[in-house]
Amino acid sequence: MSLTAKGDTLQVTGRLQTRTYKDKKEVTHKVTELQVDKWYLVGVSQTQGDYPVKEKTIIKDSDNLDKLSL
C-alpha cells in the first residue's frame, strides 16, 4: 500500500546534504540528498493510473454537516 501516488503534492521539511565519494574506479562523484524530517500530503493528483479520482467533499464548518449528502 502506497501513501502517495505520482502527481501528488507534498510539503517537505528537512535539509539538503551534499557529499562526495569515490567509486571502485577512483572516480569522484558528488551527490545531493534531501534528508526529510517531516512530510505532509498537500494535494492529490486528479488521476491515479488510468482512472480519475472521485471528487471529495470538504466540509469547513461543522454547522453544515447536515448538508452533506452520503
TrEMBL record:
Signal peptide residue numbers: none
Domain of life of the native organism: Bacteria
Keywords carried by this UniProt record: DNA-binding
InterPro entries registered for this protein in UniProt: NA-bd_OB-fold (IPR012340), Primosome_PriB/ssb (IPR000424)
Keyword check for DNA-binding: yes
Molecular function (Gene Ontology), one example: single-stranded DNA binding
PROSITE patterns, A to Z: SSB
Protein's UniProt name: Single strand binding protein
Lineage: Bacteria, Bacillati, Bacillota, Bacilli, Lactobacillales
